[in-house]
Automatic annotation (TrEMBL):
Keywords: Magnesium, Metal-binding, Methyltransferase, Transferase. This is Uncharacterized protein. GO terms for molecular function: metal ion binding; methyltransferase activity. GO terms for biological process: methylation. Belongs to the methyltransferase superfamily. Type-7 methyltransferase family. It comes from Solanum commersonii (Commerson's wild potato). InterPro entries: MeTrfase_7, MeTrfase_capping, SAM-dependent_MTases_sf. PANTHER family: S-ADENOSYL-L-METHIONINE:CARBOXYL METHYLTRANSFERASE FAMILY PROTEIN. Coiled coil: none annotated.
């Protein structure tokens, strides 16, 4: 079976289930990774005096996009104050897939410029395109690449996945499924490094934050939230509904065959896998690699050592909205869902989440890596 290229597009606009309104977890991840970003900027070789050229890869839309840029400008400003030197101008490229909601970003840029006041001269452009497919920028033109929560998305679902009976890697997945995911990540990440190496200056830095695994064994560190999403889709197979066209009750809001052919273009690598690919590709040195966890409900940091969620019902609703903002377009494009079925799917998802959180809270394991161009 050929790998499927799904519509990897976050929910647009500013509605309740939009990515802009439901990406507070991603904002916390950006903030938690900030110390590594700060250290990387300080170590840029031949620090730019006139114009600082940078790109945010997989920028998506909403407030997080310009939040990242604001952090970078503040870091550079502190650095310039310490060195008693003039602030450079900033040329910023915001990259994502062509169908990304760039309009929402562009509408927020004037207010971003007003908030900057006289702190920095900043020039922002959008660059649509896949960072796996081709060069996006001129040769040796950028000083910094930043990407948060994008590298764990593959260019496509792996090829030759059969008899998985899951939407991702699970405890019941056959070994060939794991091997296919590993090979796809190796191929994509190697290509990503090769392309970026041509665009970045010698001594430039790249800071990447993405979901990963805490242990080498994929079976022992499977993604429980995706298991729950898979179970929610299985619920739709067994759901009895009334069909107005035939005036009778039918089994299944989705077909088993449709679910069997759905494999997420997503992979959470172990740190040794990441470092090995960097070493084999050969264009970058690993400067820093760190790890941190974020709860599924990033707001639930009360009694963080407690395994049980503070408010399972409230958290499940919050997590379901966040997951819907990320996965809805992908699910709709594959299953051809209508709005009512999407609503019901994520109601089931929230129910299963509540049951899980009443027993144990969940978290995402994250890797942040700083790379130096040789």
């Amino acid at each position: 079976m050929a790998g499927e290229k799904l519509l990897m597009l976050m929910n647009a606009g500013n509605g309740e289930c939009s990515y802009a309104s439901s990406s507070t977890l991603q904002r916390k991840v950006i903030q938690d990774a900030k110390p590594v970003l700060e250290d990387a900027i300080k170590k840029i070789g031949d620090f730019p005096k006139s114009c600082f050229n940078m790109a945010d890869l997989g920028c998506s839309s909403g407030p997080n996009t310009l939040f990242t840029l604001s952090n970078i400008i503040k870091i550079v400003q502190v650095l310039c104050d310490e060195k008693s030197c003039k602030m450079p101008e900033f040329q910023v490229y915001l990259n994502d897939l062509p169908d990304n909601d760039f309009n929402t970003i562009f509408k927020s840029i004037p207010s971003f410029y007003r908030d900057l006041k006289d702190e920095a001269n900043c020039f922002i452009s959008g660059v649509p395109g896949s960072f796996y497919e081709r060069r996006l920028f001129p040769s040796k033109s950028l000083h910094l690449f930043h990407s948060s929560y994008s590298i764990h998305w593959l260019s496509q679902a792996p090829e030759k996945i059969e008899n998985n009976n899951n939407i991702y890697i699970a405890r019941t997945s056959p070994p060939h499924v794991i091997e296919a995911y590993m090979k796809q990540f190796d191929k994509d990440f190697s290509r990503f490094l090769q392309l970026r190496s041509e665009e970045i200056v010698t001594g430039g830095r790249m800071v990447l934050t993405f979901m990963g695994r805490s242990i080498p064994d994929p079976y022992g560190s499977h993604c429980a939230s995706l298991d729950i999403l898979s179970n929610s889709l299985i619920d739709l197979i067994h759901e009895v509904h009334f069909d107005l066209l035939t005036s009778c009750f039918l089994n299944g809001l989705i077909e088993q065959a449709k679910l069997d052919s759905f494999n997420l273009p997503f992979y959470t690598p172990y740190k040794d896998e990441v470092e090995k690919i960097v070493q084999m590709e050969g264009s970058f040195d690993v400067d820093t690699i760190k790890f941190f966890k974020v709860n599924w409900d990033e707001r639930d940091n009360i009694n963080d050592d407690d395994d049980i969620c503070f408010d399972a019902y409230s958290s499940s609703k919050h997590i379901a909205r966040s997951m819907r903002a990320v996965f809805e377009q992908m699910l709709v494009s594959h299953f051809q869902f209508g709005d009512s079925i999407v609503d019901y799917l994520f109601e089931r998802f929230a129910y299963h989440l509540t049951c899980h959180l009443l027993v144990q809270k969940g978290n995402f394991f994250n890797i942040v890596i700083s790379l130096r161009k040789k």
